[in-house]
Structure formats: structure tokens, C-alpha cells
């Protein structure tokens, strides 16, 4: 996919809209909105579920224990730095007590996620966990059944895998996540500009 010009000009208005959002109840208790961050020209985009406590405090995605694991996998398995990819979530505000995002909250945030994907125009989207899987591909699918496989939709290759937070709770899931990142490494080399 050709690199689009003007992303730096378009992104600030999208970011501002996300930061000022009041579309659902999550805005009532948030400390900071977590719009996402990374290379606007990256051909690899990661989509998680939603901010946790540390993310809510700092306004950055994946900076707690799950984020440390994700960053480690990006470096060790993909040979990339965090700054070379783009990382976001399906909801941009922390659900209270880290509960699952509710359907209307996901729906309220969905236009922002679609706008981010459209603006960044990645070749490959790595889906982290079942909520992202249900939002981006199919609400009937199980992450256990489809992780490590690829699915093409709207010209973009999607690669679902487990959420790093789930890997912190289960050694078996952590091993599967590591294996999936080895597959992801091959896809990055084959499908994206990052493999050049």
C-alpha cells in the first residue's frame, strides 16, 4: 500500500477529537484519554482492548505490565522498536475497575478506531485479544480458535493473537503468544514495508 502524504496534518484534528470525546459513560471517570501512539507511517498497527490504570494516569497505551510484555515481544521477536509501530485500543478511556468494555462503549469509540486505521493505512493489523477480534473481524469467533491465523478484510491483513494481559496470567497463553509473534515476524517481513 502506498504511503499517504499529509498524515501529520490530519492526525492532530483526529487526536483532538478523541481527547475531547464525551460520547459514552467512560468519559465520566477517566483521568486521561488514551488515543494511541507511534509511527503514523508504520505498516504495522496493534489494537488492544482498552487502557488500564497506568495508561489512564499517563495517557499512553500499553505501559503497564502487559505493555512491557508487548514491547519486549516487538523488540525480541520482530526486531523493531515500539516507536516503529502504532499502538491503540478499541476504547480510548479506561473502563472502571478494568472491566470489559460494554457494547455501546465500543460502538461509541469505533469511528475513532476506523479513522486511525484509515489514516495510518497499515498493511498488517495485529489484533490483541478477543474484544479487538470481535470488534474488527467477527463477534462469534474465539481468540483461542483463530489466534495465529491471518484474515484479509478491506485490503488489510489481520493477525489475531492473545492479549498480553492474558499471557501474564497463564504460562500456556504466554507460550502461544510467543509462537504467534514468531509467525508475525514472518508476516512483517513478507507483507510490510518494515520487512524491507
- How many helices? The count is 8
Instruction: Estimate percent helicity.
Output: 40-55%
Structural class: alpha/beta
- Average pLDDT for all residues: 94
Task: Please name the CATH architecture.
Answer: 3-Layer(aba) Sandwich
Number of strands: 6
**How much is the radius of gyration in Å?**
16 Å
* Unreliably modeled segments: none
Give the domain tally: 1
Which CATH C-level class is it?
Alpha Beta
Strand order of the largest sheet: 1-3-2-4-6-5
CATH topology name, in short, is Uracil-DNA Glycosylase, subunit E
Order of helices and strands: HEEHHEHEHHEEHH
Going by CATH, what is the homologous superfamily?
Answer: Uracil-DNA glycosylase-like domain
Q: How far apart, in Å, are the first and last alpha carbons?
A: 14 Å
Assign an overall shape.
globular
Largest beta-sheet characterization:
6 strands, mixed
Strand content: 5-15%
Describe the secondary structure blueprint for this structure.
Elements: H1 7-19, E1 37-38, E2 44-48, H2 53-58, H3 65-78, E3 86-89, H4 103-120, E4 124-128, H5 130-136, H6 143-146, E5 151-153, E6 156-161, H7 164-169, H8 171-191
Parallel strand pairs: 2-3, 2-4, 4-6
Antiparallel strand pairs: 1-3, 5-6
Helix pairs in contact: 1-4, 3-8
Keywords summarizing the entry:
196 residues, alpha/beta, six-stranded mixed beta sheet, 8 helices, 13% strand
Briefly, what is this?
This protein has eight helices and six strands.
